[in-house]
Amino acid sequence: MSHLKDDFIIEVNHISKNFGSKCVLDDVSISVKRGEFVTILGPSGCGKTTLLRLLAGFGNADEGEIKINGEDITNTPPHKRPVNTVFQRYALFPYLNVYDNIAFGLKLQKIQEDEIDMRVRKALKMVGMIDYEWRDINSLSGGQQQRVAIARAIVNRPQVLLLDEPLAALDLKMRKDMQMELKEMHKTLGITFIYVTHDQEEALTLSDTIVVMSEGTVQQIGTPMDIYNEPKNSFVADFIGESNILNGTMIKDKLVSFLGHEFECVDSGFGENVPVDVVIRPEDVYLLNNTSSGMFTGTVQSCIFKGVHYEIVVLTENGYEILIQDYNAFEVGSEVGLIIKPVDIHVMEKERTCNTFIGKMIDKTHVEILDTSFLCEEMEGIEGGEKVKVEVPFDKIDLMDNEDEGNLLGDVRFILYKGNHYHLTVRTETGENIYVDTHDVWDNRDLVSVRIPHEDLKITLL
Predict the structure, then answer these.
(1) Which of 11, 207, 271, 285 could tie 39 with a disulfide, CB 3.0–4.6 Å?
(2) Whole-angstrom distance, CA of residue 280 vs CA of residue 237
(3) Backbone angles phi, psi at 233, to 5 degrees
(4) CA–CA dist 277, 246 (Å, integer)
(5) pLDDT digit string (tens) for 112-151?
(6) Which residue, of 349, 364, 381, is where some domain finishes?
(7) How far apart are CA 102 and CA 377, in angstroms?
(8) What order do you get walking across the sheet with 8-19 strand by strand?
(9) Which of 349, 365, 398 lies at the terminal end of a domain, its last residue?
(10) pLDDT computed for residue 39 by the predictor
(11) 268 and 129 in one domain?
(12) pTM
């Protein structure tokens, strides 16, 4: 994407923020075009609201700079920034009526009464609240209060409107209605919207550009179509909509192996016989009652009606579970044929193929990694203190409930189902990640004890 610097109304450059020892934002950089609707999307605790608050001026970054219209506003107080914020809780004044809530900021600026009246009525019209100006705030529904909060923000004619999960408190139907109204409002106002949400469907519906965040870092920036169809990594693929994410091998350009079969695809440039991740969206797998017409076969494990389509789980002949969405029902226990077209196979580079740590030798039979001593195979010529690289395969790590049984403790941060096993991210007490392949079922935030058998540590002197 090449744009002139002048196209960007907001530039966030290498922003980092810590709360105590916890890193909430880690070297975040984002550029926002003038008039764009940008959504910052991610799970709870990923840093998206912290980023929005730094844009609004409600806090200071530890590192980096924020520019609006090319001007450094990193340390500019909130009331001097050309932005307005709509909060999740609306923050309306209960003792003022609708009109006075909207007019509040204008009165503070000592704007003339007739100008205030004209701007308030225009804002009321824009949010569809024309006949509500004298109503008491507490007599309004959640959706109506939301509209008032937006009117109060846009009446100040900000260059940027910041919205922090503004629809989270509304019921599903109201949320859908407000999404459409927000999209329409954005088009009418022509100002820049920065929108924070954890709702993937909301982000895909509203945005020109989506910024996907996890653990304080930006995972991918792109259009809704890019993010959905071309996810950069397994976190994005798993977080945005439903996905089948499978281990594969890129045999050569446009030929990939997964599910125990070879498939033609449209991807190239990965090399030959390279481990990859393969993403197949559930709507892109075609089911046939005639098994002989399929590329491979499977057995229907479940078939649940979801309103628009059926959600079907099929167990392939090679023991992989595949999630499929189809407009037709298939009987549980029935044999089916499956087809996946080349254009529907998305190949991604593997982020890692094994755990890799830098550590040091304590003595011939002990190595220190993750601030913990591990027993290892005896190494000749070791005196202690030597710097080493330690590699551990994902499937050679044991996780247990009993904290006394392992070498160190951690908690489960991310769970990825790979069709026939789970790939877990475990955050250790030292703040580093260990990646584990397991058939056991764990939940997010489960506390686990980690054990690595000594014979499975591959140690190389550095």
Answers:
(1) 207
(2) 9
(3) -150, 175
(4) 6
(5) 889 999 989 888 887 788 888 888 888 888 778 888 888 8
(6) 349
(7) 71
(8) 22-33, 8-19, 63-68, 71-72
(9) 349
(10) 96
(11) no
(12) 0.85
Specify which residues 17 forms β-bridges with.
Answer: 25
Contact, 322 vs 338, CB < 8 A?
Answer: yes
Is residue 53 within 8 Å of residue 97, measured between CB atoms?
no
* Cα gap 208→210, rounded to integer Å: 7
What is the number of helices (H) and of strands (E) in the chain? 8, 30
| Sequence-separated (6 or more) residues with CB below 8 Å from residue 188 | 126
How buried is 460 (Cβ within 10 angstroms: 0-12 exposed, 13-18 middle, 19+ buried)? exposed
Q: What is the extent of the structural domain holding 205?
A: 5-236
Please report, for the domain that includes residue 299, its CATH number: 2.40.50.140
Nearest CA to 75 out of 58, 91, 89 is that of 58
381 and 271 in one domain? no
Rounded to whole angstroms, the Cα distance separating 59 from 19 reads 11
Find the distance separating the first CA and the last CA of the chain, reported in whole Å. Answer: 40
- Structurally, the chain folds into a number of domains equal to 3
Contact between residue 135 and residue 92 where contact means Cβ atoms under 8 Å apart: no
**Which residue has 């909301």 as its token pair?**
202
What is the rounded average pLDDT of the residues 330-346?
Answer: 96
Taking the C-alpha atoms of residue 149 and residue 102, their distance in angstroms, rounded to an integer, is: 8
Query: For residue 218, what is the DSSP state?
Result: E
Residues 316 and 443 in one domain: no
Helix axes 113-126, 172-189, angle to 10 degrees: 130
Q: How many whole angstroms separate alpha carbon 220 and alpha carbon 438?
A: 27
Question: For tokens 């792109």, what's the residue?
Answer: 222
Residues 301 and 398 in one domain: no
187 secondary structure, DSSP code: H
β-pairing, 160-164 vs 83-86, is parallel
336 and 418 inside one domain: no
Check which CATH number belongs to the domain holding 20 and give it: 3.40.50.300
- Same domain flag for 16 and 109: yes
Tokens representing 258?
């997964």
**Amino acid occupying residue 220:** Q
- Give the mean pLDDT of 270-298: 95
Which neighbouring-strand residues pair with 363? 366
> What is the b/e burial string over 28-42, where b = at least 16 CB atoms within 10 angstroms of the residue's CB?
bebbbbbbbbbbbbb
Among the listed ranges 59-68, 178-187, 235-244, 391-400, which one has the minimum average pLDDT value? 178-187
Question: And the tokens for 309?
Answer: 């389509």
Do residue 10 and residue 74 come from a single domain?
yes
Kindly state whether residues 226 and 315 are assigned to the same domain: no
